[in-house]
Specification:
Structural class: mainly alpha
Number of helices: 14
Largest sheet: none
Radius of gyration: 21 Å
Distance between the termini: 30 Å
Strand content: under 5%
Helix content: 55-70%
Order of helices and strands: HHHHHHHHHHHHHH
Shape: globular
Amino acid sequence: MTEDSQRNFRSVYYEKVGFRGVEEKKSLEILLKDDRLGILPPHHESHAQVMTYRREQYADVLHALKVIRFVSDATPQVEVYLRMYQLECGKLPRSPSFPLEPEDEGFLAIAKAMEEMVEDSVDCYWIIRCFVNQLNYKYRDALPQLPKAFEQYLNLEDSKLLSHLKTCSAVSKLPYDLWFKRCFAGCLPESSLQRVWDKVISGSCKILVFVAVEILLTFKIKVMALNNVEKITKFLENIPQDSSDAIVSKAIDLWHKHCGTPVHSA
C-alpha cells in the first residue's frame, strides 16, 4: 500500500467502523516524512531557516513594542501576544490604556488557552496568530451562521430541550461568543480544546456547533430545571470540567452522524 493510501484510507476506514484517531500517530509520521507539506515550507531543509526568520521577526516586533512602551518585562505574556498581533495587523491603539475591543478579549482567551498547550513563546505566538487569522478570514462568513446551525441540530437531537430554551427566551442569549468566536477557550479545559481545535484547524468550524449541542444534551436535566435565561446562560458559561472529554467525544460522533466523514467541511 502506498503512503498516500495509508494517509487517507486508514483514517477514514477506522472512523467509519467507530475507532477515532487509531492511526493518528502513523498518519502524522507519514506526513512529516514528505518533502512537500503545503503548510510548512516545501522542503525539510528550509524549516530551520524559516524558524530562524520567525524568531527574528518575533524579536523585532517585541523590541518595537518595548521601544514605544506598549509592553515591558512585566507585561503578561498573553497581552504581549495581543500587542504583537495588533502591531503586525496595523490595529495597535494609540495608547495601551485604551479599553480592549471584544475581538481583543477573544484573542486573549484563545492565547491563554494556547499558552497552556505550547511551551515555546515564539511557537505559541505563531500558532495563535495563524489560528486567529483562520477564524477572522477563512471562517469570517461561516461563524455568524453557527448559532442558526446550532438551533437546527439541537432541534433534530432534542426538540423538547430546544422548546424549553425558546420558552425561557434563552435561544438568542446563549453564550455564542464563548462557543463560536472564542472556540470554547475559557469554557473547556485545554486537553479537550486540543481535540476540538484540531478539527477547526484542519478545515471544519462546524465541529463547534456539535460541541455546543452536546453540552446542552449532556446537561439537559440541569438546563430543563432552570427557567431563568440568566441562570441558563451563567451555567452554560461555567459547565463542570469533569465531563468535557466525554462531551467532545460525543460531539465528534454527532459531527460524523450529521456530516458523514467531514474531512474539510466548513
